[in-house]
Amino acid sequence: MSRNPNQMNLVKKFKAGQTYMDLCPKDKALSYSFPELKIINHIKTAKKILPPIIIGLIVWQYYLPAQLAVTIVTILFALSLPIQGILWLGYRSQSPLPLYLVDGYNRIKSQLIEKKIINPNRNPNEKLTFEALMKLMNLSKIHLGNYFGQDDDTSNQP
């Protein structure tokens, strides 16, 4: 019995989305530049509030004369929202970086190479994806003190 390739692709995207969700930095300042940080926040909020909503829908079905089909469709829709967000994150993580981010990626990478944190020959054929950018940003935060490897303007003032 062979599996549908699209089904496997969805499973891979879902797993990639979960990995990407753990990989993304949690700083609010970055959420203005990266919409995935807002999506991650919405997914985490949905995980907290969905159980009471589902229970409320079941109670609504029990006590009010609502149609069962409407309740089931509403519950399925509510449950699908975090799943849709994780799938979107999976697609986003494998998306190529837009040109305006490639320069920043290369600048961070050169600073990490200069400080001998990463090997210059690490992977020359590496795809420039959002996942690769987030990994590099996390390394930059750990080793350079901030996500973009920039000096603070406030530290240079007398």
Structural summary, described in words:
The chain is mainly α and 158 residues long. It folds into 2 domains: 1-94, no CATH class; 96-150, no CATH class. It is built from 5 helices and no strands. The chain has helices spanning 5-23, 35-63, 68-93, 99-114, 130-144. Helix 2 (35-63) runs antiparallel to helix 3. Residues 152-158 have low confidence and may be disordered. Belongs to the UPF0208 family. Keywords: Cell inner membrane, Cell membrane, Membrane, Transmembrane, Transmembrane helix. It is found in: Cell inner membrane. The chain crosses the membrane at residues 45-63, 69-91. It is a multi-pass membrane protein.
Give me a quick take on this structure.
With 158 residues, the chain is mostly helical. It contains five helices and no strands.
Taking the alpha carbons of the first and last residues, their distance comes to: 72 Å
- The pLDDT mean sits at 84
Q: Helices and strands, in N-to-C order? A: HHHHH
Shape designation = elongated
Largest pleated sheet? none
What attributes characterize this protein structure?
single chain, 158 residues, mainly alpha, 5 helices, 66% helix, disordered C terminus, transmembrane helix, membrane, UPF0208, cell membrane
Element layout with pairings:
Blueprint: H1 5-23, H2 35-63, H3 68-93, H4 99-114, H5 130-144
Helix pairs in contact: 1-3, 2-3, 4-5
